[in-house]
Amino acid sequence: MKMTRKISWTLLLAAAVSFTQCKDAGDDVQIDDENELITSVTLKFTEEGTNNTTSFSYKDADGDGGNAPARFDTIALKPNKTYTLAIELLDESKTPASNITDEVAEESDEHLFVYTPAPSTLLTYTYGDKDANNYVIGLTGKAVTTVAGTGTLKVRLRHQPGTKNGTPSPGSDDVNLDFILKVQ
Amino acid sequence: MNRIVFVFLLLIAALTAHAQTSECACFVKGVVKDQHTGQPIIGATVLIVGQNSGVFTDEYGRYELRNLCPGAYTLECRIIGYNPFREKLDLTAGHEENFNLLEQEVHLKDVEITAHRTDAPSSQPLSTISGSDLDRTRGQNLAESLKGFTGVTSLQTGSSISKPVIHGLHSNRILIMNNGVRQEGQQWGSEHAPEIDPFIATRLSVVKGAAGVRYGSDAIGGVILVEPEELPFDKSLSGEVNAVGFTNGRQGVLSGTLQGGIKGFKGFGWRAQGTMKRGGNIRTPDYFLDNTGISEKNFSLAAGYRNKGLGIDVFYSRFDTKIGIFSGSHIGSVTDLLSVIENGEPFVKSGFSYNIARPNQNVSHELIKAETHYHFQNGNRFQWTIARQLNDRNEFDLHRPRNDSIAALNHPELTFKLTTLTNDVIWDHKPIAGKLAGQLGISTLYQYNLMDGRPLIPNFNQFNMGLFWMERYVKSGWELEAGMRYDYRTLTSFRIVNREKVSQDFKFSNFSGTLGATRNFSEKFSARLNFGTAWRAPNVSELFSDGVHHGAAAFEKGDATLQPEKALNTIASLKYASPKFTAELGGYYNIISDFIYLKPQPEPILTVRGAFPYFKYTQTDATFKGIDLSASWEFARYTTVTSKLSYLRVYDTRNDNYLVMIPSNRIDNQIKYELPEDAKWHKAYFSIGNLFVAQQKRVPPASDFLAPPSAYSLWNVQTGTTFDLSEKQQLEIGISVQNLFNVSYRDYLNRFRYYADDMGRNVSLRLKWKFGA
C-alpha cells in the first residue's frame, strides 16, 4: 500500500518534470511573410507614335497598416490623345522586390483588371490582351482621352480563381484604387 | 369544470351504494399464500377490479371484503415481488377465495448516488444539463449544445463555427474548463470555436456572472464547465454508441465510449472515447452555402486509480477539425462587401458537396492532464493538477500564392501554435465546527505562441500566477461565501518591425473578490445574491492587431497601452421548485470598467485594396444589465409547458451610447407531452416549441454596414423514446426538426449575416445504444 503511494507520487513528479520542457517564443520569430502582398501599383501611359512614357504610382512599402502610403500620384494626361497603358505591380517589402505583374500574367485566367473613369467621358479604355479562355486581362491596353476635365480613374484587379467569365462580378478585389485623373 | 363533474359523479355513486346496503350482505374472504413455501403473505392487496374497494392481508395472510352486492366481480391480489393474480367470482352469498401467488423475478436496479464536486461559487446561479436533456443536443458543437440555457446565446461564423455568449460576453471574457483544465486556444477570434468535443462530457454547466476568484483572469462573463462522468472504478465493461444524422449538410456523427475496471486490479478504472463527424454544404431555405462542410475526428483516453483517500487520474484528448469557410464571405474590399449586401444573396452559388476547399481552417487541440488528490483522515484534502495543451491552428486563404511553385506546397497562409502549461494546487481545509469550509489554492500558467504567415498577432511568452482563498459558512437555511484572489501576469511579445526583432514587456496584476449569500426559505423556495469581481488583461490581438480583417471588411488596429478590464458583477436570483411548477428569476448588473472594444474612427484608412473603415481598440466603461427567467409548469397530466426569457441591455456609459454585437432579446417556449410509462418503452415524449428572437434595436448609429436583421421566429418539433433491449441494453431514439417551416432569417450575432441567410430546415435522427452496467 505504502509502496503504490510512493510509486504514484514518483510518477506524478516525473510527469510534472516532463511538462516543464519550456520553449521561448522569442527564439523563433519568423520574418512576417504575407503571400502576394502588393505594395506598389504603377500605371505607364505611352503616347501613341512617340516614346514619351509617363508613370503614375501608388506606393505603400510596408503594406496595410504601419506607415501611410508614401505616394499616390495624380494622373495627368493630354486631351484627344491615344495612349498605350501598361500596369506594373510590385511587392517592395521583399528584397529584391518581387514582380507581381509576372505572376498575374502567369495566372491570367484568374485575373482581370478593370479601369473605370468617372466621368466616363474622360477616357475610353480598350483591352489589348486575352487569356487562354479568350477573356480579356488588362495588363496592356489602349486609353483614349477626349476633352479636358478632372475626375477619377478607378483601377481594380479582380481575383477570380475558377470563376472568371469576362465580367468584373465574380471574385474579390486584390487592388482597388481611385487615382485622380486630370486631362488638361 | 372537470372537478365539478367528478364530485357530482362521486355523490351519485355514494348515494346508490347507500341505497343498496340493505340487500348487499355478500362477502369474500380468504388467505394469500406463497405458492412455493406455503407461507402466508402479509400486506398483499386484494381488490375488486373496477371498484375502489380493497384491503390488505393481515399478519396471517387473511383478508375479508364485506358488504358486497350480489353480482359478478373480478378480484385481484397483488404485492411487489409476486405476479399479480386475478379471479372471477359470481357472488350470491359469502365466498371464500384463497390465493397462491407465484414469486416474480423482479430485480430492482441498484440505485447509485453520486455527488459531484463543483468548485463554482455556491451563491451564483449554476445551470446544468446532463442525461437525456444533454442527449437531445448530441451531434451539435459545444456552443450549440449550451443554447438551451437562458442567458446563453452564440456568436457564429456561419453554421459550422460558433462560440458561446453568456449575458452578452464571449471569447476571452468566458472561461471554459475542460475536464478541470482551463481551455487555452486562440479564443480572441470570433471565428475560433472552442476546440472541445461535447461527447466527452456527461455534464455541461454554466456559471453565469463573474467568477474571478475561483477561476482567475478572463472569467468576467462566466464559466462553462465541461465535465465527464466519474471513471468506472471496479465496474464491469460498459459503453455506449451514439449515431446522429442531420439532413441539412447531410451530416453524420458517430461517437462511441467504452469503459470499465480491471479484474484483479482493485481501485482501477479506464475509459476510451472517440467521435467522427462529417458534413457537407449547409442549405438555407433558398440556396446552398458553398464550402461550408466540416470534418472532425476526436478521441480521448482516461484512466484512474482510487485507494482509500488517494486518487490519481490521467487524461489525454485530441480534437481535430477541418472546417470550410463559406466562400461567398470572402471579400477583398469594401466595394465587394457593399455589392454582396446590395445583392441580398451570395454571388457564389453551389450545389451540395462534402468537399472542403479553400478558404478553410484546420485546427487540432491536444490536452494531456494528470491529477492527484488525497483526503486526509481529519478532513483536509489536497489536490494537484498539471496539464499541457497544444493548440495548432492553420488557416488557408481562398487565394493560393500566385507563384506556382509556392502554391504547389499548399501551405496555410496563417499558422498559430499555442502551448500552455497549467499547474493548480488546491487545499481544502477540514471543516471547522462543521460549519465553515474553505479552500486555498495556487495556480500557474505558462504559455507561448508561435505564429507564421501573414502578419497578424505577434509571438509571445506569458506567465500567470494566481493565489486564492475562499470560505463558506453554512447554518440553518443560510449559506454565506467570501473569497479573494491575487493575480500576477507578465507578457513578452516578439515582433518584426522593419526587419528587426522588437520585444515588449507587459506586467499586469489584480485583486479580485467575491461575496455571496444563499437563503433557503423552505425546501421549495430559495434566494441567492452574489457580488463578484473579475478582470481580464488585454490579449495580444487587442494590443497588436494592425491590418485588414477581411471577414469584417474593417481595418483593425491594436493599442499597446491598453489596461486590463475590471468587472463588478451583481447577480441575484429567486428559485421556486415544486413537483408541478418550477421557476427561476435572475437579475444581473455587470459594470465593466475599461471595457475593450473596437471604436470606429472618423477617417477611413487607405490600402491597395481601397479605403477601409478604420477601427481602433479603445477602452470605455460599459454596463450589462438583464433578466433571465425560466419557468416550467405541468398544467395537465403528462403535459408540461416551459418558457425561457432572456433580456439584456448594454450601454457604453462613458460615451453615452450603445455597444455593438450584443445579442438580442429572446423568448423560447416549449410544450411537451410525456406518454405514461410502458413495460417496453419509457420516457416517450413529443414536444413542440418556438423560439422568438427580437430585432436588436440598441446599436450605435452608423457603426455598421448593415442594420441589424429583423426579428425571427422558428418552430421546432421533437419526439423520442427509450427501449429496453434487454436487462443491460438500452436503445434511445430521437427525431427532431429545427426550423420546421424553413424560414429565411439572419441573426445579428452571425458574422455571415452580410452575405447569406442562416440555416434552413434541419431534420435529425438520433440513436443511442447503451450497454453494460
UniProtKB/TrEMBL annotation, chain A:
Species of provenance: Dyadobacter chenwenxiniae
Highest taxon in the source lineage: Bacteria
Keywords of this entry: Signal
Signal peptide annotation: 1-25
UniProt-recorded name of the protein: Type 1 periplasmic binding fold superfamily protein
From TrEMBL, chain B:
Biological process, per Gene Ontology: siderophore transmembrane transport
Listed Pfam families: CarbopepD_reg_2, Plug, TonB_dep_Rec_b-barrel
Signal sequence annotation: 1-19
Main subcellular localisation: membrane
GO molecular function, one term: siderophore uptake transmembrane transporter activity
Residue ranges constituting the TonB-dependent receptor-like beta-barrel domain according to the UniProt record: 351-740
Top-level taxon of the source organism: Bacteria
Location(s), subcellular: Cell outer membrane
Keywords: Cell outer membrane, Membrane, Receptor, Signal, TonB box, Transmembrane, Transmembrane beta strand, Transport
UniProt similarity note: Belongs to the TonB-dependent receptor family.
Protein name, per record: TonB-dependent receptor
Organism: Dyadobacter chenwenxiniae
